[in-house]
Amino acid sequence: MIKIQRNSVIALGANLSFDQTPPILTLRHAVRELSRKGMVVTAESRFYATPCFPPGAGPDYVNAAIAINANLSPVDLLVVLHEVEEMFGRRREQRWGMRTLDLDLIFYGDNVLPTIEEFEAWCNLPSEVQAKTAPTELILPHPRLQDRAFVLVPMADVAPDWRHPVLGKTVVEMLADLPPKEVAEVKPLLL
Fold this sequence. Notes:
Helix content is 32%, strand content 17%. By secondary structure, the protein is α+β, with helices and mostly antiparallel strands. The protein has a domain at 8-109 and 148-160 and 179-188: Alpha-Beta Plaits (2-Layer Sandwich). It starts with 7 loop residues before the first strand and ends with a strand.
């Protein structure tokens, strides 16, 4: 059974302009739009310049994270995130491709969805398989968050002590497990 959870983190990213608006402004506008849709933003990370993932797939990204409170189920929250992405020109044509806006629900309290077995199966898929196949159900926590500096560095600004319900590690601990070179590539933008 899913508990309605008010404590969630959303990762934000963009590497393409939308309607002549640069990615950093698109992220700011998206946060404002989420607030208009009833999300209470409790913390915002700094903005970071990050190398495009996967490497060579397009321009570098601007990434950030926000902590929110929302009285929505995880599936309903995901619907809102997709609506906001669409408002800012997001088209789901290529997995892990360039985008005007990417809003990923990273965690929803301590919920593991859809089941621990399905979470672990997805988490253990090789990257090359995940690059070609999207899950049919919402997987939480995000199955690759522990592998991605561009997610963990901004998360450390807003939820450093959140403990992964499967891995048992905090955001800070998962970040410390990454190669230092990958972490160093995520650079704060001076605004």
